[in-house]
Specification:
- This protein is α+β, with helices and mostly antiparallel strands and 263 residues long.
- The chain has helices spanning 4-15, 53-66, 82-87, 128-136, 144-155, 200-215, 227-234, 256-262; strands at residues 20-24, 27-31, 43-46, 72-75, 94-105, 118-122, 160-167, 170-180, 183-191, 219-225, 238-250.
- The longest helix is centred in the C-terminal third of the chain and has 16 residues, at 200-215.
């Protein structure tokens, strides 16, 4: 099993790369007014017990509304925070439930057939536009303009390294690894639609695994992910460490489920 506090701390370090953060007793508040509709950059991430739900929810609304942002909460540790869940609708929040897996690389490489047509390279200023084009082609990642702004911030962060896979010279798959101290997590794995179903992700994941070994990382994570996506990573020897239940609560705008269905 995984340690929720440790997972949250890794997630905080990740989001801090493209968002401002304020710490509260129950968790943290992320905000980036330059990209107001980018959910990952603008939300309260809460995993500790909320002692006074009504006061807490009002403070969350006041905080984000004062910055002209939509109040949004990613809530974990649901058993201890049942009273807060029950108070959400009273305070004008809609919400949706998720159960996602946490995966961890077991240190073993999958056996992949040699493919001389595949070349994987680090993303630099010379090929950055090609990597960005791959990410922007994935509708599930969000609006292209938001993807571009987030990419520009994370690309220039020392915590991120981006990679680009070419098949017969064509840029068609991208991903990045985020590193904090001795831990890494794989993010934004993307394959352009016309190149899907060819097993390219497996080669990209193995390359990043090899890089994580060179960096001397103790842990390499993928989190949190849906059951469908988890099956893809299992082929690259990522093992489930358990699942994490959460709620996405918001006062207006689209749900995450709606965005995914439109992708």
């Amino acid at each position: 099993m995984f340690n929720l506090e440790r997972i949250m701390q890794l997630d905080i370090e990740y989001v801090k790369s493209f968002s401002e953060v304020e710490v509260c007793k129950e968790g943290v508040l992320f905000y980036n007014q330059a990209i107001p509709t980018y959910y990952d950059a603008n939300h309260a991430q809460i995993w500790r017990k909320i002692e006074q739900p009504d006061l807490f929810l009002q403070e969350i609304k006041d905080f984000y509304q004062s910055k002209s942002l939509i109040p949004r909460i990613y809530l974990y540790n649901l058993e201890q925070n049942q009273l807060c869940i029950e108070a959400l609708e009273t305070h004008g929040f809609q919400y949706e439930h998720f159960v996602n897996e946490i995966q961890y690389w077991d240190g073993e490489y999958a056996i992949l057939p040699p493919n001389p047509a595949i070349h994987i390279e680090r993303v630099t200023d010379a090929n950055m536009e090609e990597a960005l084009a791959v990410e922007m082609s994935i509708s599930a990642f969000g609006e292209p303009s938001l993807i571009k702004k987030a990419f520009e911030q994370t690309y220039h962060s020392s915590h991120f390294t981006y990679y680009l896979l070419r098949l017969d010279g064509v840029a068609c798959c991208s991903a990045n690894i985020f590193v904090s101290e001795n831990q890494g997590r794989i993010e934004s794995v993307a394959t352009t639609e016309s190149y899907r179903g060819r097993g390219l992700i497996g080669y990209m994941l193995q390359y990043i695994q090899q890089q994580s070994v060179k960096l001397g990382l103790d842990d390499l994570w993928i989190l949190p992910i849906s059951e469908q996506v988890a099956k893809v990573y299992e082929k690259a020897n990522f093992k489930s460490m358990g699942s994490i239940a959460s709620i996405h609560a918001f006062t207006e705008g689209k749900s995450i489920q709606d965005i995914r269905q439109q992708a």
